[in-house]
């Protein structure tokens, strides 16, 4: 009892889209670079697996929050680069605000007597 079944780095449900959008806020990246940015920026705590990342990128593109184009990676390989659309920037701002309110509320609950 009390044993955690999740692994270190598991994402809270619903946060992957927000993290992917944030990874692309600074400019376009290919999928692997998005995953690496999240991993490095979280100081090696969060890890996004390919099986979750690429469906998320595709879903966000279908929603109009991302656009993509083919290019050449730093390894001289063909790669699909993703970038935020105006709708993606707006959605990210709204999600950041919502996440801030939620985490503050959860912290207050956890700190209560």
CATH class: Mainly Alpha
Please state roughly what percent of the residues sit in beta strands, choosing from under 5%, 5-15%, 15-25%, 25-35%, 35-45% or over 45%.
5-15%
Q: What is the 3D form? A: globular
Count of helical segments? 4
Approximate helicity band: 40-55%
The chain-level structural class is: alpha+beta
Number of strands: 3
Largest sheet: 3 strands, antiparallel
Order of helices and strands: HEHHEEH
Q: What is the averaged pLDDT score? A: 90
Describe the protein's architecture and organization.
With 113 residues, the protein is an alpha+beta fold. It has a single domain, classed as Orthogonal Bundle (Arc Repressor Mutant, subunit A), CATH 1.10.10.10. It is 52% helix and 14% strand. The protein has 4 helices and 3 strands. The protein has a 3-stranded antiparallel sheet. A hairpin with a 5-residue loop joins strand 2 and strand 3. The longest helix has 26 residues. The protein is globular, with a radius of gyration of 16 Å.
């Amino acid at each position: 009892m009390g044993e955690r079944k999740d692994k270190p780095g598991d994402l809270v449900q619903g946060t992957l889209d927000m993290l992917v959008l944030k990874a692309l806020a600074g400019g376009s990246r290919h999928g692997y670079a998005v995953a690496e940015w999240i991993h490095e920026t979280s100081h090696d705590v969060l890890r996004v697996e390919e099986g979750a990342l690429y469906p998320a990128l595709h879903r966000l593109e279908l929603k109009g929050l991302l656009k993509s184009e083919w290019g050449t990676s730093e390894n001289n390989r063909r790669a699909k680069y993703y970038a935020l659309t105006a709708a993606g920037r707006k959605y990210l701002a709204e999600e950041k605000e919502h996440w801030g309110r939620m985490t503050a509320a959860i912290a207050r609950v956890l700190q209560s007597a």
